[in-house]
TrEMBL record:
<protein>
    <submittedName>
        <fullName>Uncharacterized protein</fullName>
    </submittedName>
</protein>
Amino acid sequence: MSADGFFFAGLANPGLTNNTFGATVTSASVQQITGLNTLGVSMARIDYAPGGLNPPHTHPRATEIVFVLEGELDVGFITTDNKLFSKTIKKGEIFTFPRGLIHYQINNGKVLAAVIAGFNRQLPGTQRVANAVFASSPTVEDIVLTKTFQVGTKLVEKIKSRLPPKK
């Protein structure tokens, strides 16, 4: 291997945010930097348009720490006791997401935001909650989703009451 196996310039520039979520994750893991193999570290850059969201997800193999480069974000994670830990973080501040817990980041500001994320694994893995539940292959049976999300119950009515009115 040469020095190039330990080099990656992919985090130098912002990622495009003109997508469904208004955010882009640019990974710097062992898949991009072969020299990270067995070293137990990786990084990512996440760029957010105003209103951009890195939707609820987990990293099954790694703890994540984010450092805000620009802007500010509302961030949070949910414990296994369903307790939400959330905070607004600004340029120069950090926040940590424990391994395997569902977490998110959203740019509620009016300007672009960006973070550098660090992970304690060379390949942390990412599983988006909505994709895992609603876009698996083969699909999860409707009866499982109906019972899980208590369709037709007070829980659904509570969720609907929090949604903005339809136009």
